[in-house]
Automatic annotation (TrEMBL):
One of its GO terms (biological process) is lipid A biosynthetic process. This is Metallophosphoesterase. Signal peptide: none annotated. It comes from the Bacteria. GO terms for molecular function: metal ion binding; UDP-2,3-diacylglucosamine hydrolase activity. The chain crosses the membrane at residues 6-23. Coiled coil: none annotated. InterPro entries: Calcineurin-like_PHP (IPR004843), Metallo-depent_PP-like (IPR029052), Metallophosphoesterase_sf (IPR051158). PANTHER family: PHOSPHODIESTERASE YAEI, TRANSMEMBRANE PROTEIN WITH METALLOPHOSPHOESTERASE DOMAIN-RELATED. SUPFAM superfamilies: Metallo-dependent phosphatases. Keywords: Hydrolase, Membrane, Metal-binding, Transmembrane, Transmembrane helix.
Amino acid sequence: MRTKTYILLAIIAIFLIYILIQIKCFKINKVILNNDEISNDLNIVQITDFHNNKLINKNRLIEEIKNIDPDVIFLTGDIIDAKTKDFSYSLNIVKDLMDITEKIYFVWGNHELRNTKGEEFVGELKNIGVIVLDDENIKCQIANNKINIIGLNFFIDEKDYNKAIEGIDEKDYNIILSHSPNRPLRYLNGKEDLILSGHTHGGQVRLPIIGAVIAPGQGYFPKYDKGLFELENSILYIDSGLGNSVFPIRFLNRVQISNVLVKSNME
């Protein structure tokens, strides 16, 4: 009887250590894409769904991103949690990111919208130089490429989407930042090259072969849960995020950031 108890306790301890690693020890997911509309390789870091996760080693995170040496950093929402009262930890990380590159773009997630200090947090992002996009686009030069960055509000509808993409040139490389991966899909018009999103956390709990068990806004066994999805005229990429919500648990789905390298097909 005592031996069985020790075995059970050992199994529980191993499981808890595994979960701690999954929610604390982030990895960098590297994605390589190819495109004809850029003349130079575009090196992107995407950070999403941080949820003010203080378990993350801040110094290591900054050092890893510094080593990537990104041309641009995209923050695709839920950098703080709806329950976050003190957002200084998240804000200080973004301040450190500004020392790596000043080309940082942010879109609202549902947790910023729900947080009573959400507007204050986003206001502080603006104050330190982060470009906040809310159903609008901006034309810019990044790595000597003409890029249109379109930032969508979480609660996007067709009217707002048409407003957000107004004036973009389909000959340029067009990147959509949307916290929700599935909400804007019904409005795409073929001008979009890359859609970067989060929100799903990859389901937090994943099963072999099946993938995510559940994702917000999509229910059980969601179609758009994590990773790359080839659409008719564009590519959707969903990062599973650096944090957790509701329960601090992940299974077969370690917290992460993404390094998306878009390689030019031009010789």
